[in-house]
Amino acid sequence: MTGDAAKVLADGRSGGGPVARYSERGLHGQTVQEIARRILTGELRPGDTIDLAALGAELDLSLTALREALKVLAAKGLVASRQKRGTFVRPRSDWSLLDPDVIRWQFANRNDDAFLENLAEVRGIIEPQAARLAALRRTPEDLAVLDAALTAMHDANGDPALAVAADLAFHRALLTATHNELLERMEIVIEVGLAERDRLVHGVRRHDDPVPSHRAVLDAVRDGVPGRAEEAMRDLLAKARRDLDTVRED
Asked: Are residues 85 and 147 in the same domain?
């Protein structure tokens, strides 16, 4: 494996990419995730007041520790505190739905296909046009990162964790190659959701080799042919949908 490809995989495994998740390690992180889970599943509904004393007793937490966890969720728009009212769950319209942790927590607590369908629709709107722009604007540095990601994908040899890391690196690099700051920020939606989708597909069964479809996109971007890059990305997304449908049928 080349040094660049190894770095791609190391970054993917360590969370070193731009969309690093909130740490769930330790009591604080676990508390944040547990309260988020209750909100996102509707166990705590918008408008509900959170009984801090009861929740602290249930989770065996001090009031200070509980309040520190709630500060994290307040920053993500899930809860708020008011005098006389106390701490309560904010309306869904106030939640930071593009926050990578909120996206991941929602997916982890969903047992239907709506999230993946939403993700597929968003990718279908964004990524073909991103490929088109990348074909027009890519730099030698962009192509080097895309090449490293494709090499890492090839070298994953069926390892689900390595395959996911390489896939994320490729799509992140493609967005970066557009040199459009707003499109680059769409990685928040695409990367977190794509990681969960990939874990389903790569973790359940062996599927068709992903390298050829990604190579077709990269070749078109390298050749500077925007229409071909867009079409190659549409073909890649269609294959991704077929892979997911196969997993659902199993």
From this structure: no
**Whether 126 and 161 share a structural domain:** yes
Give the residue carrying structure tokens 């990604």: 214
The verdict on 38 and 158 lying in the same domain is no
pLDDT of residue 124: 93
Angstrom distance (rounded) from CA 78 to CA 93:
10
- How does DSSP classify residue 42? T
Question: Among candidates 71, 81, 88, 57, which has minimal Cα distance to 28?
Answer: 71
Can you say whether the dihedral through the CA atoms of 97, 115, 193, 147 is positive or negative?
Answer: negative
Instruction: For 124-143, give one letter per residue: b (16+ CB within 10 A) or e.
Output: eebbbbbbbbbbeebeeebb
The dihedral formed by the CA atoms of 60, 62, 68 and 70, expressed in degrees to the nearest 10:
60
Q: Would you state the pLDDT for residue 12?
A: 44
Written as six digits, the tokens of 151 are 């090499």
Residue 214 scores a pLDDT above 90: yes
Domain span holding position 203: 112-249
Contact in structure between 103 and 192 (CB atoms under 8 Å): yes
- pLDDT greater than 80 at residue 121: yes
CB 229 within 8 A of CB 217: yes
pLDDT digits (tens, 9 = 90+) for 44-60: 999 999 999 999 999 99
The sign of the torsion formed by the CA atoms of 155, 227, 191, 238 equals negative
Which stretches does DSSP call E strand in the chain? 79-82, 86-89
Give the C-alpha separation, 77 to 70, whole Å: 10
Q: 228 and 208 share a domain?
A: yes
pTM > 0.85: yes or no: no
pLDDT at 13: 41
